[in-house]
Specification:
263 residues; mainly beta; Jelly Rolls; eight-stranded antiparallel β-sheet; globular
Length: 263
């Protein structure tokens, strides 16, 4: 009996690793229409916050809540579609007016991390502004400036930074995504992101354990960033680490060699 080579076995028995990718779009999570997830664990008293992470599709999302004071940070999920109401009470709407796919999306505030199950790594994700942040940059508020200033030429920006770490917590690399950029010499090129932007994560490689999110911006005060530090995320595409496919192929070949020959 002839035994196929490893390369041939891979070709005929297993799809390529991108074909095994899975899309995390958060529609599997329970949520009432036009709302957001803010859990009340009953334990955060006296202003003491609790860590309440959650998971979807092999990825765990950090979240910190204080249900006594109704404050939170990290990443939760939402489905708000209001694109016109400014202010804090509309902090859970995506500025494009809908999720990138399906009806729900993840929403980050200030900081947050994605933790990938062993053997799983990210290929891409979609990012955009929340309505609260976008309108704040376009209009200004009592706490933050209108981007561009009075003249429209101030070099303002809001940047979401992604830092990746491997399984030993060593830093892998960094990506910057501009949620708003007014630094152009030509003011007509200035923008506040109003659509979903797909971000390629493959430069981080496949030995990745965690992605941390943080903000940088031009409008800062004594307590840090004045611009509301929110982002919306959807369509997180993940795949199994390629070496796992090689192991599967090796197992396939082993089983093939164990088959009895026909008389």
């Amino acid at each position: 009996m002839r035994i196929p080579s490893l390369a041939l076995a891979l070709a005929i028995s297993l799809p390529s690793w991108p074909a095994l990718a899975a899309l995390i779009h958060f529609d599997d999570l329970p949520l009432a229409p036009n709302s957001f997830s803010f859990p009340d664990d009953g334990n955060t008293v006296g202003g003491v916050s609790a860590s309440l992470p959650w998971s979807s599709g092999g990825v765990t999302f950090d979240r910190i809540v204080d249900d006594e004071w109704s404050i939170w940070s990290g990443i939760t999920w939402a489905n708000g579609t209001d694109t016109t109401t400014p202010g804090f009470n509309n902090q859970f709407s995506a500025y494009p007016g809908a999720a990138a796919s399906g009806s729900q999306f993840a929403l980050g505030y200030e900081t947050g991390s994605l933790h990938f199950d062993p053997g799983l790594y990210p290929l891409s994700l979609d990012l955009t502004n929340t309505t609260y942040t976008a309108l704040d940059m376009l209009q200004g508020s009592g706490f933050s400036k209108k981007f561009g200033g009075t003249s429209g030429s101030d070099p303002d920006y809001l940047l979401l930074r992604l830092d990746a770490y491997d399984s030993s917590s060593s830093w892998i690399g960094q990506l910057d995504v501009y949620l708003a950029d007014y630094r152009f010499t030509d003011d007509s090129l200035d923008y506040v992101l109003s659509t979903w932007e797909t971000v390629d994560l493959t430069s981080f490689g496949n030995d990745i354990s965690r992605i941390d999110f943080s903000f940088l911006g031009s409008d800062n005060g004594v307590f840090g960033l004045n611009t509301p530090a929110y982002f919306a995320m959807d369509n997180l595409l993940v795949a199994p680490e390629p070496s796992r496919l090689t192991l599967l192929a090796a197992a396939w070949i082993f089983l093939l060699t164990r088959r009895p020959s026909r008389a």
